Amino acid sequence: MQLLSLTKIVSDGTHNAFTGLAHFRNRYFLAFRQGEQHGSPGGKQILLSSADARQWDRQMETSFPTPEDLPPKTPMDFRDNYFLNLGNELRIHSFALTPMGPDETYLQPVRSTVQTTSDGVNWSAPRTILQGSLLWKPIFHQGRLWCAGYQRISGEGLVVDLYQSADGFAWERGSRIAAGNETILVPTPEGALRAYVRTQDPPRHLQIWEAASPSFDSWRPVGVISKIIEAPHVATVGDCQYLFGREKPDGPDRRSSPHLSRSKIWRLEGNEAHEVLELPSLGDTSYFGTVVCDDGTILASYYSQHERELDQPEPERGGNHKPSDIFLAQLKP
Known about the structure:
Elements: E1 2-10, E2 15-24, E3 27-35, E4 44-50, E5 57-62, E6 77-85, E7 90-97, E8 111-117, E9 127-131, E10 134-141, E11 144-153, E12 157-165, E13 172-179, E14 183-187, E15 193-197, E16 206-211, E17 219-225, E18 228-237, E19 240-248, E20 262-269, E21 272-278, E22 286-292, E23 298-304, E24 325-332
Antiparallel strand pairs: 1-24, 2-3, 3-4, 4-5, 6-7, 7-8, 8-9, 10-11, 11-12, 12-13, 14-15, 15-16, 16-17, 18-19, 19-20, 20-21, 22-23, 23-24
């Protein structure tokens, strides 16, 4: 993998993060979350658009309104952005969080949301499509929409379930995939679904699970990538699949050195991942969006703090409370 160019798109002294990237109606769309820090009340979604992926215009700024079941003016944190291109419609999937209580759990269940456009100009307001679980990057497969969603269950911790939908607005929970959180689904040539699961239990390595078509109701472990990879994202170019994510250092220095995190790309071969590129990155970073261009190159959005001062991060909070910038990389496989 070759880095052809790297452009800083947003750098305004705030915490800009959690990107999504799409190409629709002959324009590029870049969405990201902007807030005071990595997780903070009042986080809002910013949408940029461009005809050439070079000159970007600010198209929309969206905050999630206070739900009726919460006290008025409760500040919501509107986070993460994943585009789903259905051909005649483009969707942004996000989620909204309430402030965290004294027991470090959110005061109300997470709300998974969607916004839609048919022309790339006029967008719907955020619509709650699921409460309780966080839907992570829906895909279209075998005539339906599928998504891994995770939630925290008392006595079990974080668990990942499979969800399906006919229209993307009403979601039905199905089988349990594994313990974990952020999980990307990837169809196999045989029609099965493969899940790359971010895990929390030591050693926190990325797990691979698989379920057969058509019901996908029984998941079996098929491999482990022996790296701590967070925010997994997969892009397919021809016959090759590339895993994008944030790698954290393995071993005892993981928590004492959060600034060692890097945004990287691996080529997937069977149940193995071979590193092909480390992007300029540092600290709080990653959360990719990708577009595969007609010439086979890849445009990849992500955020990073490598141009910020992180040589002496705060002992526990690391770079989560410091500004971060949005970047767009042009890549040649």
